[in-house]
């Protein structure tokens, strides 16, 4: 059985105060069900509040960072009558993004493979991102009849500008690690075997820095760049709750599970 909630997260702490939180659902390409989404936000908030935490590194086990919502788990829950309401899932995603942005320590995302859906939002919310050469960011929302969520509608434009963000979000194409580097989304792109050590090296460097100065710098940059965050999350919540019960989304999910192109109406 696929692990869920806190059981799907692995925490490793080194002597420098670097805490690595790894999503450990490789058999689902680290796609997150509701319980895992909720737990990840809680754990980041808890770890960030600990005095001996200096830096948080986010990672994915196996060949993916996280491919977003676990559509298979959602389908199984729906068939059993245990489905989570769309608004509740949106709240969990928003709480996760807030936890990353409000963490009083730097957060680094080590994107080792595909990052899709809310997984992209998670990577964008981090203060810095590394990617392996074969990793990519997939803003797949419109591909399945949805709109960006998890703050992606404001996190991405704040990072790359409106024109580039519109291209990525409206087309729904995969953004390679090389393109992500070219538009300034990542610190560096490395061979997969070197990714973890590169992220840890930067984390250890930051861990030696002045914790309070780094906290206030992060807060200042976040508030300056993301003045529209709360309003964006509200718009996403409203729009996504509408789209999640639409015929187009049902067709989008079905097409993914059946491995075919969707027929939107």
Account of the 3D structure:
The chain has 265 residues and is of the alpha/beta class. The protein has one domain (5-192, 211-257): 2-enoyl-CoA Hydratase, Chain A, domain 1 (Alpha-Beta Complex), CATH 3.90.226. Helices cover 50% and strands 14% of the residues. It contains eleven helices and nine strands. It has helices at 34-49, 71-80, 86-102, 118-125, 152-160, 162-171, 177-182, 192-207, 211-225, 229-243, 247-257, and strands at 9-13, 18-23, 55-60, 107-111, 115-116, 128-132, 136-138, 174-176, 188-190. The strands form two sheets. It has a six-stranded mixed β-sheet, with helices on both faces. A hairpin with a 4-residue loop joins strand 1 and strand 2 (18-23). Helix 3 packs parallel to helix 4, helix 3 (86-102) runs antiparallel to helix 10 (229-243) and helix 4 (118-125) packs across helix 5. It is globular, with a radius of gyration of 17 Å. The model has no long low-confidence stretch (mean pLDDT 93). This is Enoyl-CoA hydratase. Belongs to the enoyl-CoA hydratase/isomerase family. InterPro entries: ClpP/crotonase-like_dom_sf, Enoyl-CoA_hydra/iso, Enoyl-CoA_hydra_C.
Low-pLDDT segments, ≥5 res: none
Shape: globular
The percent of residues in helical segments reads 40-55%
Can you tell me the CATH superfamily?
2-enoyl-CoA Hydratase, Chain A, domain 1
* Overall average pLDDT: 93
The largest sheet has its strands arranged as: 1-2-3-4-6-9
The arrangement of helices and strands along the chain is EEHEHHEEHEEHHEHEHHHH
Query: Count the strands?
Result: 9
Through-space gap between termini: 36 Å
Instruction: Give the domain tally.
Output: 1
Beta-strand residue percentage? 5-15%
Q: Which architecture name does CATH use?
A: Alpha-Beta Complex
Query: What is the CATH third-level topology name?
Result: 2-enoyl-CoA Hydratase, Chain A, domain 1
């Amino acid at each position: 059985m696929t692990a869920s909630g806190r059981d799907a997260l692995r925490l490793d702490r080194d002597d420098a105060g670097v805490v690595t939180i790894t999503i450990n659902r490789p058999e689902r390409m680290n796609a997150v069900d509701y319980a895992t989404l909720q737990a990840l936000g809680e754990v980041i908030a808890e770890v960030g509040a600990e005095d001996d935490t200096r830096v948080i590194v986010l990672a994915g086990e196996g060949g993916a960072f996280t491919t977003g919502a676990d559509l298979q788990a959602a389908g199984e829950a729906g068939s059993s009558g245990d489905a989570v309401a769309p608004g509740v899932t949106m709240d969990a995603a928003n709480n996760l993004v807030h936890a990353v942005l409000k963490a009083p320590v730097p957060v680094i995302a080590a994107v080792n493979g595909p990052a899709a859906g809310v997984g992209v939002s998670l990577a964008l919310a981090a203060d810095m991102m590394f990617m392996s050469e074969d990793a990519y960011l997939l803003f797949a929302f419109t591909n399945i009849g949805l709109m960006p969520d998890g703050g992606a509608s404001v996190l991405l434009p704040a990072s790359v500008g409106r024109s580039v963000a519109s291209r990525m979000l409206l087309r729904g194409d995969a953004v390679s690690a090389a393109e992500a580097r070219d538009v300034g989304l990542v610190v560096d792109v490395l061979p997969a075997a070197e990714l973890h050590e590169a992220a840890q090296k930067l984390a250890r460097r930051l861990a030696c820095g002045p914790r309070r100065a780094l906290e206030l710098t992060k807060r200042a940059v976040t508030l300056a760049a993301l003045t529209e965050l709360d309003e964006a999350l509200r718009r996403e919540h409203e729009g996504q709750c509408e789209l999640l019960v639409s015929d187009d989304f049902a067709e989008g999910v079905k097409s993914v599970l059946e491995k075919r192109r969707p027929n939107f109406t």
